Amino acid sequence: MGGSSCGPRAHLVHLWPPHFAFSGHHPWDLGAHSGPALLVSLASEVQDLHVAQRKEMASGFSKGPSLGLLPDVPSLLETLSYSYCYVGIMTGPFFRYRTYLDWLGQPFPGAVPSLRPLLRRAWPAPLFGLLFLLSSHLFPLEAVREDAFYARPLPARLFYMIPVFFAFRMRFYVAWIAAECGCIAAGFGAYPVAAKARAGGGPTLQCPPPSSPEKAASTEYDYETIRNIDCYGTDFCVRVRDGMRYWNMTVQWWLAQYIYKSAPARSYVFRSAWTMLLSAYWHGLHPGYYLSFLTIPLCLAAEGRLELAFRGRLSPRGQKAWDWVHWFLKMRAYDYMCMGFVLLSLGETLRYWASIYFCIHILALVALGLGLALGGGSPSRWKTASPATSLASGKLREE
Q1: What is the pLDDT of residues 278-327, one digit of tens each?
Q2: Which of 131, 143, 215, 291 is packed most tightly, with the most Cβ within 10 A?
Q3: 198 has which bridge partners?
Q4: Polar residues composition bias: which ranges (predicted)?
Q5: Rounded Cα gap, residues 376 and 382, in angstroms
Q6: Given CA atoms 345, 132, 35, 296 in this order, what sign does their dihedral have?
């Protein structure tokens, strides 16, 4: 299980239909297909190569291989092979051409561990699957579409979005863990731990490949490059912003690299709104996507302003209590936004939100106004704030 195919025929071996996902109505829908994302990334990698080559020509000397830089412009066949690679065909994760190339060129694929990392990664999936089946059976989404649902008391309507989002998370946890395990089984995305790889982007430090089978066997590897979900981080991080980073992590890297950084604005909130708008379009044309995604910038603005206005003035004990309240409200915000993501239609999403009096929108507006009134600082300062990102010890995080 630890090897990958190498050699001239490897490009043909890994041809498969492109990275399509299911439609938004399928119960296991995992979002928009990643084929265009791969090609956008490849175009950027080729551009980086051309820029580096021009700099070399201008300076008159070669600096040697740069981190993550392609060795050459891929041919049409290589581009098609990358686009149609079977790894991640249905559920992702997103991967760069450099990652794909490193996989094919792994010098000692038999030394790359896969069985043990696969088992370590896969063990929570059966539990998540059972929790998904149980929660979706006890709290079916279809109930929200019935008139009888809106005759229930307000607390019951408010509560219902919690198990709906819980089932939503469990479904994606299972699917993305399975996708990661598919990559791990193929030895895809494995890099030495010393390279400090990050999800989507790959290595952040130069780490030469092992020069012998013995060195390869003694090298410690990880699969952070293709890590697509941090289940613990998603559930227990404190802020809305951090919750986004732990969810669909390889695509989050792609969005940050190619959408957020090129947004036609400098403000963090407006850049986030631009990114969420294009992310909604990427998922499809259902109004629920836009209603949900475009609520995120409001929540980001509210939590940023209020956090800077209040948290720093509290004692350590008060900050701990603040973080618990912040976490609770973060989860309720995601519960609320999830309803638009699963109901999809404009009428059904607004009907549900109206039945709970648009509580998250109103709460976010109140928090934003309060933060502004108390001098919550400019958006450029939010990233410098350092609240606790998780409510529990890092030792409890999944391996």
Answers
A1: 999 988 899 999 999 999 999 999 999 999 998 889 999 999 999 999 99
A2: 291
A3: 202
A4: 381-392
A5: 9
A6: positive
Closest CA to 322 of 238, 236, 235: 238
Q: How many CB atoms are closer than 10 A to CB 164?
A: 24
Which runs of consecutive H residues, i.e. helices, occur in the chain? 10-13, 35-59, 76-83, 97-104, 115-122, 125-138, 154-185, 213-218, 231-236, 240-245, 249-255, 268-283, 287-293, 296-310, 316-343, 346-355, 359-373
Q: Phi, psi at residue 103, to the nearest 5°?
A: -65, -50
Residues 6+ apart with CB under 8 A from 227: 93, 180, 199, 249, 250
Q: Answer for the pair 2, 72: CB distance below 8 angstroms, yes or no.
A: no
Rounded to whole angstroms, how far apart are CA atoms 224 and 202?
8
Longest dimension (CA), the chain: 76
The sign of the torsion formed by the CA atoms of 240, 246, 251, 254 equals positive
119 close to 203: Cβ distance less than 8 angstroms: no
Q: Can you spell out the DSSP letters for 191-249? A: EEGGG--BTTTB-SS--PPPSSHHHHHH--EE-GGG----HHHHHHBSSHHHHHHTSSH
CB atoms within 10 A of CB 383: 10
Please state, in angstroms and rounded to a whole number, the distance separating the CA atoms of residues 142 and 123: 31
